Amino acid sequence: MFGIGIFELLVILIVAIIALGPNKLPQTIIDIVKFFRAVRKTMAEAKESFDKEIELSEIKQEALKYKNTISNEVDKLTQDMKLDELRELNINDLSDSLKPLQESLTDTKKELDKEANALHSTLKSLNTELSYESLDSKNAESNMPHATAQNLESAESAQTSIATQDSTLTYKNATSSKSQDSTPQHIG
């Protein structure tokens, strides 16, 4: 039991009989056995409670892992929800801020169209007047031999200048309407 052989046990037993006497020896042996049983029982209980504590600490660690995992997932979901709300707000804000811009662009386009039509009609009338003048100058040329080639050239250059201005205005109107068409539309 404690590294004691049979010979040592007999020596201890003989010393105990001499010291205690034959009357007290059986009761002392019973007390010693009870003491060792109590010590063994206490050690078993301590070991059992220690094992339970170890189990509890392991369960706590697992619970903490699950708690951390769940809290991380909740944080991710919360961030995703906040991002979705921000995206939604940005889209709503952008659409609200684009409405006045679209209205002003529409108004500007209408004004430009009016001005272009006015310029176009003015150019047509000028063109018509020049063509009448050139016809008159040709008639005058045939009637008047002293009409100079310079007068004819200046009339022709004025007519080509007006035609160039007319085509430039048409090109500008076309490009402005294309840029108006490429403006971002309302996303709703």
UniProtKB/TrEMBL annotation:
Keywords: Cell membrane, Membrane, Protein transport, Translocation, Transmembrane, Transmembrane helix, Transport. One of its GO terms (molecular function) is protein transmembrane transporter activity. The chain crosses the membrane at residues 6-25. One of its GO terms (biological process) is protein transport by the Tat complex. Its main location: membrane. InterPro entries: TatA/B/E (IPR003369), TatB (IPR018448). It is a single-pass membrane protein. Residues 148-188 have a biased composition (Polar residues). It is found in: Cell membrane; Membrane. GO terms for cellular component: TAT protein transport complex. The keyword Plastid does not apply. Residues 136-188 are annotated as: Disordered. Belongs to the TatB family. This is Sec-independent protein translocase protein TatB homolog. The gene is tatB.
